[in-house]
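Notes from the pairing session

We agreed to fold both candidates in a single pass and log them together. This is the raw record for the first candidate, unedited. Please don't reformat it; downstream parsing expects exactly this layout.

Candidate A
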Amino acid sequence: MDKKEEKMTYTKLIWIFVIGSIAGYIFEVSFYFLKHGIFLNKQGLLYGPFKPIYGFGSVLLSLLLNFVRNKKNWIIFIYGSILGGIFEYACSLVLQYFFKTRMWTYAKMGLDINGRVYLPYLPIWGLIGLLWLKVIYPWFSRVLAKIPKKPLLVCTIIISVFFIFNSTISTIAVWRMRARTKEIPASSKLDRFLDKYYTDEYILKRIPYLRLVD
């Protein structure tokens, strides 16, 4: 890649996040179907086939692994495995202690770290990092560089606004869901709006692996 394609920009990072979120959703749905023979919606936000953890992971891998892009493949693989595990653990902590939710646990599988990271899955992060850095990212950068700047900027702004809205409404809806489990009555128009349109059934239908924790 030339210097223009290597450069990290806000636009590039946003689309890396979007692609990573969609790819993560497809991966988890496919994996569950192959394992259980059942289709299960595995999205992480209320609207759209997105798993934000994979989006953030893609951004993290792109930023950090960019420094080792010229290293040997086995070094990139190790970096990807370690960074993926650290990222997954950190996300689990943030969800539990800041948002009081938990969307996955490996506690019953063994070979786990506090139920947050499953050690046999670390090589998957390594492979994803290697594949992303050596194959997908270079192709993605070349395609993005060929798109006219103005249409790309408009689309980037639209998708950014959408994700801000999606993340915000998902967060406050879950917070209100948690309040309802504690039988805290609606005290504002926003609470009443959430109780009417974002019921527990509505939320769990879209984010079925959501678990509230203390």
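Candidate B (folded immediately after A)
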Amino acid sequence: MTLEMRRLGSSGMEITSVGFGAWAIGGGGWAYGWGPQDDEASVRSILHAVDAGVNWVDTAAIYGLGHSEEVVGEALRRIPAVDRPLVFTKGGMIPDPARPFEEPQRNLQPASIRAEVEASLRRLGVERIDLYQFHWPDRTGTPVEDSWGEMARLVDEGKVRAVGVCNFDVALLDRAEAVRHVDSLQPPFSMIRRDSGADVIPWAHAHGTGVIVYSPMQSGILTDSFSAERVARMAEDDWRPRHPQFREPALSRNLALRDALRPIAERHGTTVSAVAVAWTLAWPGVSGAIVGARSPEQVDGWVAAGSTSLTPEEMLAVGRAIEQTGAGSGPVHPLTAEARR
């Protein structure tokens, strides 16, 4: 299998169209954890993805309160330097270690950003981060111009290679772009959560900003074996059962959409997971999709998305299935997104 390569905007980096997402391998014990996770299984999953051709890993300081970055760092130490994947991480979510289940502070003050970059460099065991991203917009009152100016300085100093943002709206993107080019944007995007296709993804496409979408399988719903029974069995510190998309009435609509993908998956000789991810990659402006895995077998479930192209007819069929099931929100097809602009 040969994974498709795409440019990450104008950053100069070429990335595989699918990347390894390290949210879940941060484990449980914090506000947005996924329950218990075996670290050795996590390392094997990263190594398996790299062996399959994946050339980037996306993590964040908040995942497991630093633990995900430590696990990624351990995996990097087991990979020969010439084969190491690009490392993307994120900052700006500051937890209270004494209250790990409380909402982290969204802090993009320049001094805090710099301290987080230094901590991430240590945990990852690297000399430079390939892509450093703001995880969420600031809530301390810090102007984005001040925050983004600090990111520009970190690039100039060689601590990070490129800089991006996650979960920004168009207004914030415009303000950041006026200070320094935004190399990448990371929005939520899946067949269920489609709103980014109407605004920020087209903005990025028009401005030469790379887009790496997160949760393209809607955190597990758009996978072959997902079920309501699985939700009921999730650990107490797994965030998903508390989310509306994992509860009725949305869950039944989402699973009906998942089932509608099975004929497309059968035609391609692949999984529903791969079809769900390939759908996000078919949107103009999308450079890559971040896909999580907690085991090597889960990597095998989605890696084929990096070499799967949906036909125009299949894209229309997915749009019809979305409309019939009533799953999620946002434009159902790239052409409908263009018509809204």
